[in-house]
Amino acid sequence: MKKSRLIGGLLLLCFLPFLSYAQDDQEIAPVTRTFVLKNATIITQPGQMIENGQILIKNGLIEAVGKSVSVPSNAKVIDVDSMYIYPGFIEGLSRTGVPRPKDEERREIKDPGNPPNDAAGIQPERSVVDLLSADDSSIESMRKLGFTAAHVVPHGNMLPGQGAIILLGGSSPEEMVLASNTSLFSQLEGARRVYPATTMAVMSKWRELYQQAKQAQQHEKNYKNNPRGMTRPSYDGTLEAFYPVLDQELPVFFTAESVKDAYRVLALQEELGFPLVLAGLKQGFYMTDELKAKGFPLLLSLDIPESKEEKKKEEGEEEDKEKAKPDPEKEALKKRQKEAIAKHQSQAATLSEAGLTFGFSTLEVKSGDVKNNLMTMIEKGISEEKVLASLTTIPAKMLGMSDMLGTLEKGKIANLVITDKPYFSKESNVRYVFVDGAPFEYEAKKPKKKGDASAKVSAAGEWSYTINIPGQAMSGTFKIKQDGDGQISGTITSPDDGSEGELQEVVLSGNNLSFSFPYDAGGQAMKVSFDVIIDGDEVEGTVTAGSFGTFDVEGERIGVPD
Amino acid sequence: MRSIILLLLFGIIASWLPAQEGTLLIKNGTVLTVTNGTLENTDVLVADGKIRRIGKSLSAPAGTLTIDATGQFVMPGIIDAHSHLALDGVNEATNPVTAEVWVGDALDPLDVGIYRALAGGVTASHAMHGSANAIGGQCETIKHRYGVYNPNELRMEGAPRTIKFALGENPMRVHGEGRNIMPRTRMGVEQVFRNAFSEAKVYMAAQEKYEQERRSNANAVPPKYDRRMETLADILRGDIIIHCHSYRADEIAMLMEVCKDFGVDRLCFQHVNEGFKVAPELADFGAGASVFADWWAYKFEVYYSTAYNAAILSKNGVVTSINSDDSELIRHLYHEAAKTQRYGGLSDDEALALITINPAKQLGIAERTGSLEVGKDADIAIFSAHPLSVYAIPQKTIVDGVIRFDIENDPDDMRLDVNPAEDVPAVYLHTEEIDNCMEGVFEQLFMGEK
Amino acid sequence: MKSIIKNIGISLLALLMSHQLLAQQVSKASTGTFALTNATIETVTNGTVKGTLIISDGKIADIGGNLPIPSGATEIDCAGLTIYPGLIDGGTRLGLAEVGSVSLTEDFNEIGDATPQMQALTAVNPNSVAIPVTRVNGVTTVITKPSGGVMPGTASLIHLLGYTPKQMYGDFQAVVINYPSSGRRGRFDRRSDEDIKKAEEKALKKLNDVFDEAYLYHRIDSAAAGKAEMMPDYNPALAALLPVVRKEIPVMVEVNAAKDIQSALRWVEEKDLNVIFTGVAEGWRVADEIAAAKIPVITGPVLSLPTRQSDRYNRAYTNAAALHKAGVKVALRTDDAENVRNLPFNAGFAAAYGMGKEEALKAVTIVPAEIFGLDDQIGSLEKGKIANLFVTDGDPFEPKTQIKHLFISGYNIPLDSRHIRLYNEFLDREPGLSK
To answer: Which residues does the UniProt record annotate as the domain Amidohydrolase-related (chain A) (predicted)?
Structure first.
């Protein structure tokens, strides 16, 4: 218990409070809001390219795009020679900038069959705008991938609230919000321990709220026309939130990861007739025909499974041992799993092949995986152009933002991504992101140290490490002990009080060192895993902190074993 | 020469074309019709998912899929009047009355349990809400069309609506003991029903009043839409069959009294272990009884049970079925039915009726299923030996004329959806009986507590 | 006058009878010498004999084609009927469990992880309602065993007749080990793979620690040769393991997942014990390895689900046959309490799914008798064996077959149980519908 608290403290330090003032430290007030980007390959929109082009940005807007633009004297000129400029990416559905609420102390609810609406997860009147945090680390995580705008929704269960479209830049929620109350967000998620706890109760409650809203709207209308002698309609904010949906003015963004949930949502829609965007799909490949027939806007999940071959490499040794005895059952199972992985990875390609278009939902996906997953989708057969459209023009249109977002055209908001190589290539780095005309500059990543399973290195000694968390760096040390018969163990030190925690799952495979330790993030148990490559006295790799994400880490050996 | 090649080509193409879905001919089997006796060396012709002819030496259009059932037994597809197969979630255990929820909203067509039931000759089942609440959710009669991904395609279209009620220990434990909310006793259980039905009557009256007022006043305000009340009203109108989890004779008698008082007459008791004690009353009411062949003693209210329950009920004129309530038991309902021959000496047809025409009657689908008759749905199970023999092995199971289980041609691994994250499928070991009717309750009641 | 006396007689009789019915659990068994004549006798070990079987002094006195009927013997005409040896269930909780959900009536799971000193026999309730219910289906003998934890206690073999546990005891005991499991306890078991692995490792460590101590205890106890001051310290758990490490009684190792079976095979090889594997649900995956280790297996229930979603639907049905085919000595069990009566049907399914009737019958008679080292006493119809047998009008595995007579330890047991009594009372209930 003591151990987890100490490490918990260590990590809380690095994830929560530092961020706000760390950023203030770095910022220098900008001199001008006029920029000229020169000598780049400009992809103005999917399929359209200007070689050696220029862009003029002024007061947050794209002022001009072309082979050459006039350069005002107050402009800051950025030479992006041989780089590539894309329209800024748009998250079709996400919670970027919306911090996960802290686990509340469990409320004592006397009658779980009739809980208050907020406990039941029924808060359609709530706006995500009130929940935004401009310094949430997720904003920088997504921005450095090239995302500049997002349709964001609250955390919650059945009806968490209304979505808004935000820019992934700005120092306050007010600055970020591009449009508020742009969607009603819903999930087939039951509440914890109270009604509605199950999918079937959520479905029932949905129908009931919808019909009640219809009644209430009619009642209000009638009352407005002629209140005399009529029972006064009582105010109900929950039902009122449905009115624009009933009027077909506000779309319901309904998540449905599995094929089963997707069919359930479609059935509910067919029954009630609300405007729908089907979001977070992971298994659309099972129902391509139905998706086509229905024609609802789609958002595919960017969370896709990893291929097995890549993962297996480190376990190569064990596999060899087992290869001695061929096991047809294991082979068959592996084959089916491989097929399943491929199907999920190919969802975008399959749907695109069928003539469907879609944006992407980034709910549930780790930011560190986003680019890899996009690349995998392309490997599986969807064109780069279509992926780019799914990140730009399609979500812009779906969200009713085509006049502001999605392409590099005069008059649109200056949201753009600049990479040193074409974005959809393994080696590309995002070098600049403009959000609302404000630049964010990024370093090119050094080439990653390469793993080598046959390398023989020693991990023993004391190591310093620095985790690169957006907006700050977090440092500490760990010690690794290796005894004669290959036994390996270690400890990690807390920077504040110097106390030590035991490392778990310490494995050295070739030059690849990995270990983990448990950590209690305010009641939520999670695992922090290091995965680094040792090169002489240097280490480099990643740290995964539960669902917070994956971060780069580097360090060096500061002490040799005694 | 050229024409020969053409002919050959045609032949190949013809064999490529899939046989007409839902059309086949079963040749030369011993046909157990259940309602019209046993027919030796008889054929069954199926077209478009329906039984078209039953007779000797039937022929079918060329290319019709033909099954040689020589030496085999052909019976109506088995129907399970009580199961929790193919469901994502069984209990909305948060309230003693949850009439508005409907398991049809949470069907799981990917449940490999459906296939395993097919491998036991079961073609349809009654996917039920659990028994945590006195008035649970509405249930769904499903056909075992394993292979579809759309949950809606499992539904047996046109089957009457049904709802789960529950008496005794389960609702008392969940709400009374668990939360200090009525019912804690069998007295309280009765009052939950009376309250619910009475409130529904008030709701119905308010609706009626509104309908009348509306004719003269366009601004009439309707009563607030309430799905729970809507459902209860549908029960009172006779649109929904009650299937009630029950054990003790006294509580069974109680619900019949309540139903009489509220004019409800579509009632089938489930489990009903002490049904044999009130068999004359059940017969008099016209209530069905869907029982276990021999399960008992797993809780106090089934301690005074007997494996002769089905026989006593049948012989007293109660429409009786044998059900599974369990994903293992559902695989050998034919064997469960056979136990009534040891415990009470039922005839072959009486025993088979317990898993075919009788559950069909209890679910209100006997017009379409439950026996082999011309015009009925082609839901058929083919066995290697008489299905009441312990040595009988199901060979093929047909739903709407489509072979959904085939002992010879099916691969071992019949999962429809493979979890990409799962390297090796988990190993699930046999456990002592669990109360399937209480599935999901524990999580909702005690999650995070000791 | 006569009619009055008659009437009084009848009402008195009725009064007596009703009183008796209230007090009685089942009708009383009778003893003596019995001659079962004109029977088909399935001896199991010596083929089928047509003729007579004589029961005397609790034993099978003789079997033969044309035996003289001993004087004073009760003759039971078994024309058209078949005699089978009493069926043996290799794993139950019979007598230890009365009402499933009422924990205070459940006596098979004591507190503690390693409690081999817990004696199942101690807690056997001879008057459990399930016992008559079971034996009228031809099951005369069962292993009743504790469960839960790593070493829940000592199992016993009991015959299903007697008024004290001692009277029922059938000369066989074994310490139960639940081998650390990598499997899930049903679909409600939502532990992570890691948690399962941790629990498994912890249990294995516990098991090994206890055995290390047990061997030490044995060494000290043996060296002490009865000298009080040299005896090991009081430790009932380790004392209960003495006969195990001295190989005087076997261990019944409950193990099911293929991986765990392989691990258990390595474990028992190190330990040098008399071992019986029980459960063995995934035995078909590693049948050759079990056969090579020559470890007998008690598997079941046959009527259960495959262990994995990806498995063929009938894997549990065919498991016993696969093990048998690989050369493993296989007996069956129900692993049940109130429905041990389904043992013959479990055997029927094993027979249908590849084992064949003959081997399936052996798997519930002579094979378990051999596994328990009791094949000189039970498991077949042979002269000198305990008279545990039943008489049927057909195949004992077929549900429609009726049991006509039942003998346990030579007692003629009326075919009576609460289930039958309720049938008799309620088939034509009086009063019927009228008030």
So the answer is: 338-437
Average pLDDT over residues C144-162: 97
The answer to whether residue B360 is domain-embedded is yes
Among the partner-chain residues A193, A208, A336, the one whose CB lies closest to the CB of B413 is A336
Instruction: Measure the CA angle with vertex B153, ends B17 and A264; round to 5°.
Output: 135
Share of chain B above pLDDT 70, in %: 92
Residue C223: which H helix or E strand, with range? helix C193-224
pTM recorded for the entire structure: 0.89
Domain-located, residue B145: yes
CATH number for the domain spanning B220: value is 3.20.20.140
**Separation in Å, CA B222 to CA A192, A210, A218, B201, B202:** 33, 15, 10, 15, 13
In a domain, A507, yes or no: yes
Domains plus CATH for chain C?
27-86+379-435 (2.30.40.10), 87-378 (3.20.20.140)
**Do residues A455 and A540 both lie within one domain?**
yes
CB-CB under 8 Å, C129 with B303: yes
Q: Kindly indicate whether the ipTM for this predicted assembly is greater than 0.90, answering yes or no.
A: yes
**Does the residue A532 lie in any domain?**
yes
Is there a domain that residue A388 lies in? no
The C-alpha atoms of residue A36 and residue A439 are separated, in whole angstroms, by 11
For C429, the closest chain B residue by CA position comes to B277
Same structural domain, A545 and A498: yes
* Chain mean pLDDT for chain C: 93
Domain-embedded: residue A303 = no
**CATH code of the domain in which A66 resides:** 2.30.40.10
Chain A contact set for C310 (CB, 8 A): 333, 336
Chain A residues within an 8 Å CB radius of B136: none
Domain span holding position A421:
34-88+406-436
Domain that holds residue B140: 78-369
Q: What is the mean pLDDT of residues B265-291?
A: 98
Residue to test with chain B: of A105, A107, A122, A204, most B Cβ within 10 A = A204
Clarify whether residues A427 and A485 are in a common domain.
no
Structural domain tally of chain A? 2
Task: Please give the structure tokens belonging to residue A278.
Answer: 């089907």
Q: What is the pLDDT of residue A105?
A: 62
Distance between CA atoms of C152 and A386, rounded to whole angstroms?
63
Say yes or no: C192 contacts chain A, CB-CB below 8 A. no
Task: Give the position of tokens 């044309």.
Answer: C66
B446 vs C: CB within 8 A: no
Q: How far apart are CA C54 and CA C68, in angstroms?
A: 9
| Residues forming beta bridges with residue B450, ordered by sequence position | none
pLDDT band at A13 (very low <50, low <70, confident <90, very high): very low
Residue B48 lies in a domain: no
Interface test with C, best of B295, B320, B355, B390 (most C CBs within 10 A): B390
Residue with tokens 């209210």: B301
- What total of structural domains would you count in chain B? 1
CA distances from B252 to A473, B279, B438 (A): 70, 10, 20
Residue A519, domain CATH: 2.40.128.120
**What's the CA gap between C141 and C168, in Å, rounded?**
9
* B196-224 residue pLDDT tens: 999 999 999 999 999 999 999 888 999 99
Q: Rounded distance, CA C427 to CA B124, Å?
A: 31
Query: Which of A329, A330, A516 to substitute to test the interface with C, most C CBs within 10 Å?
Result: A329
3-state secondary structure of A176: helix
pLDDT at B432: 56
Residue of chain A nearest C310, judged by CA positions: A333
Closest CA to A304 of A344, A257, A265, A264: A344
Give A333's contacts in chain C (Cβ within 8 Å): 310
Residue C285's closest chain A neighbor by CA? Answer: A329
On whether any CB of chain A is under 8 Å from the CB of C309, the answer is no
CB distance B210 to B223 below 8 Å = yes
